[in-house]
Structures are given as C-alpha cells and as structure tokens.
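Priority: medium. Attachment 1 of 2:
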C-alpha cells in the first residue's frame, strides 16, 4: 500500500508540474498576442494632429508638418535668410540645412499657399545651393511681414561675407541642441 501511495503521489506531482508548465506557456502566449485595443492605440499615435501610422518621421517633418500654416512657412524662410544677409534688425534665427529647405519646398508644393509663387522659387534656388539672391529673397518676405512698409526696421542691405556668416552660425547655432530655432525680439548683430 505504501508503494502505491508513493507512486500515486509522484504521478500527481508530475501531472501538476506539467500542467503548471503548460498553463504558464498558454498564459504568456495570450499576453504576447496583439489585441484589437493594442492595435488601435498603436494606430492613433499623432504628431501635430496627423496620425503617424508606423511611419518613420524625420526631425524636419516634425518641425514642418504637411499641414503647416502659411505664416510658419513665411517665418521659417525669413528666419533662415538671416544666415545669409546683413540687416539692421533680425527677428528669428533658423539655421539653413539642405533637409529643412527640401522639406519646406515639399510642404509648399503640397499646399495651396497664397504666396507660393514667392516661396517655391526661393526654396528651389536654395535647394540647389544658390543664395545669390538672398537679399532680395529676404526683403520680399520681410515686406510681406511688414504689410508693405518699406520704412520698417530690418530690411536687408547686402549679402553676408563668408566670415560674417561663419560668425553668425557660431553665435546662434554652435553648441545648441539640434540647432534649435531661436527668436529674439529686436536681436541685433
């Protein structure tokens, strides 16, 4: 009788052990399966009101989303032009990069902005590295911002020399995280 009891206990222990292992694997398998709620949460990640839907988003796409308002396009071009021109007063500093210029150009082409006839040619030239008209580019944008007031402060007078541009980049963008946009009211150089 003792032998049967021991055998029964061993069989029960083995069955409980295997049952526990089987139950553990079934439970963790269920935990790893995607649920409709998890899928829904994953699909509703948004940036600036636009769903990402598993898309890899660049820094420039976050800075200049597809639905960027025209005032922000105008402001970005104006702020970037300050790197290339000399003017009495400068409001806004944004470093010119190929990625930013190309992204703004793409955003302009996908939107019907009132002043696309101004923005697109500027950005197309800049995308090719042509900043020879940066004074005129700056002043056209500046004039829009000033409501046509030619006497407002900040009109560009000439292109910056390479040395002046280097100083500007060092002053506003070096040692700044991600070359962050800086805006200073009435900033003078």
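Attachment 2 of 2:
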């Amino acid at each position: 009788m003792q032998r049967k009891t021991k055998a029964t206990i061993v069989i029960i222990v083995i069955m409980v052990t295997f049952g526990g292992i089987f139950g553990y694997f079934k439970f963790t398998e269920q935990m790893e399966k995607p649920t409709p709620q998890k899928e829904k949460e994953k699909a509703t990640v948004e940036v600036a009101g636009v769903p990402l839907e598993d898309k890899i988003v660049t820094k420039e796409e976050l800075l200049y989303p597809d639905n960027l308002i025209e005032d922000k396009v105008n402001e970005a071009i104006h702020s970037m032009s300050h790197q290339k021109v000399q003017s009495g007063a400068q409001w806004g500093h944004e470093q010119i990069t190929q990625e930013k210029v190309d992204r703004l150009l793409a955003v302009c082409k996908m939107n019907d902005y009132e002043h696309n006839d101004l923005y697109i040619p500027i950005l197309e030239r800049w995308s090719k590295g042509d900043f020879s008209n940066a004074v005129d580019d700056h002043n056209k944008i500046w004039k829009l911002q000033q409501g046509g007031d030619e006497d407002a402060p900040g009109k560009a007078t000439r292109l910056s020399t390479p040395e002046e541009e280097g100083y500007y980049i060092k002053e506003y963008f070096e040692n700044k995280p991600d070359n962050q946009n800086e805006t200073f009211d009435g900033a003078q150089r």
